[in-house]
Amino acid sequence: MVKEIERAGIPVVHMCTVVPISMTVGANRIVPTVAIPYPLGNPASTPDEEKELRRKLLDKTLDALSTEVEDQTVFE
Amino acid sequence: MKLEVGYIPIRDIQFGPTSKVDGNVLYVNQDELSRLLLQDEAIESVALDIARPGESVRITPVKDVIEPRVKVHGGGGIFPGWCAKVDTVGSGRTNVLKGAAVVTAGKIVGFQEGIIDMSGEGARYTPFSTLNNLVLVVEPKQGLAQHAYEKTLRLAGLKAAEYLGKLAADIEAEEVHTYETLSLLEGVRAYPDLPRVGYVLMLQSQGLLHDTYVYGVDAKQIIPTLISPTELMDGAIISGNCVSACDKNTTYHHLNNPVVQDLFAEHGKTLNFVGVIITNENVFLADKMRSSDRTAELCGYLSLDGAIISQEGFGNPDTDLIMNCRKIEAKGIKTVIITDEYAGQDGASQSLADADEAADAVVTGGNANEVIHLPAMERIIGSIDAVDHIAGGWSGSLNEDGTITAELQVITGATNELGFNTLSAR
Fold first, then answer.
1. Is the preceding omega at residue B53 within 30 degrees of 0, hence cis?
2. Which of B129, B150, B415, B420 is most open to solvent, judged by the fewest CB atoms within 10 Å of its CB?
3. For all residues of chain B together, what is the average pLDDT?
């Protein structure tokens, strides 16, 4: 899906936990997430902490989306 | 570490007034075993049943398969950390009721348990159709959480296997196999010219009922480490898995790991079987990186010439597999990986979620998406209603006449990634 959307000319950020698979698949902008069963949350956190976590991830992702890249890039 | 394993062949199981082994028949006192299992207060009821090879019987939903064994001497007890204290096992003498198994059944997750058919098309795909199976159908107390039910059923299976195994303690074995792993230095001296081969055994450890245990420790909490192959034969590793049935390693698989058996068969002849490295398949990327790093470091430390890597399960563990392969190969150590495939029902899709050029020697257990047709069986042990939801099944998989159309992955052990299955291209 990442590749097909980009083929249509729309930049994509792949938010995912298993970065190596994202690299193999060929995503160009990658934002690592928390864990496979809960990429955008953390059941060990409080709801407030989770909200903060999500906001930071989303901010990072929006920055990645608006960043020019030359090669496959992981936004740590 | 040296272990003798004595085989006592079992050709039938019968219920009887006294639990005992007489000739090649295993007799089980139902009441005694049920009372033992019902000591777990989480259990509402236990139904014991027997499934023999060739019978028109379908067992489902299958959780685990366990071989009855007993430690005759040599320290520790079978299933350390569960049925015995955590003392090191793998030395001395162990007796096995060969040809018998305990099968645990219960609807824990519903879609992540499996099917064992004792005859017909389905029986061809599971090695457990050739065994005399004592099946435990365990119903939990109302309101018991899934994870607690999993633990209860897991322990019930181990306890039953231990109970049956003890019947073999004083019986003369028909066959005795001896396995020995030398210390690092002794091995170098004994086989200076043979290639040094290690076995990397990947353990399912994704959590959420996808777990494996080592001496009672949850494998997702381990750092990759060395273990003697004979420790596996005494139950140092047990399955706590509710995951796709076709490629999970049951406790029976760990006890009878065919990679270990084959490496021992060649040990001292064509290769020096140095040992087993156990590692995990966790859901955090940092864990995957750390575990594959440590695994490769251990391979290098052992000065291996070659490593065999077996996977458990599929999906994101494909990445653990490829990371292990790539990092071990980068140390100049040749690898062979054993996996299975999810290549779509037509077999045309990509088989693994990850890939690398280093993975140039691959053994497959088969395509888990292949569609199979199972005939109706005269008797169901357990309950059939989970079939429509089982991984590899779909709404309508279970037909009104009792036949089943589903993917191969519904069958316990069908595409096992240790090679403990019957599928072959030959």
1. no
2. B420
3. 95
Which of B147-161, B233-247, B358-372, B385-399 is least confident?
B385-399
Q: Quick one: tokens of A57? A: 């991830």
**Kind of pairing between the strands at B196-204 and B272-281:** parallel
Q: The tokens 């005795």 sit on which residue? A: B176
- What's the pTM value of the predicted model, to 2 decimals? 0.94
Tell me, yes or no, whether B186 lies in a domain. no
* Nearest CA-CA distance, residue A32 and chain B, Å: 9
Name the one residue in this structure whose structure tokens are 């956190």.
A45
Asked if the structure places residue B147 within a domain, the reply is yes
Longest CA–CA span in chain B (Å) reads 65
Question: In DSSP terms, which residues pair with B93 in a beta bridge?
Answer: B4, B73
For testing the chain A interface, which of B209, B285, B323, B356 should be mutated: the one with the most A CBs within 10 Å?
B285
In a domain, B232, yes or no: yes
Angle at which helices B317-329 and B285-301 pack, to 10 degrees? 30
Residue B19 lies in a domain: yes
Tokens of B378: 């005269």
Give residue-wise pLDDT tens across range B291-316: 999 999 999 999 999 999 999 999 99
Contact B354, B322 (CB under 8 A): yes
* CA dist., res. B36 & res. B267, Å (int): 41
Domain count, chain B: 1
Closest CB to B354: pick one of A20, A32, A37: A20
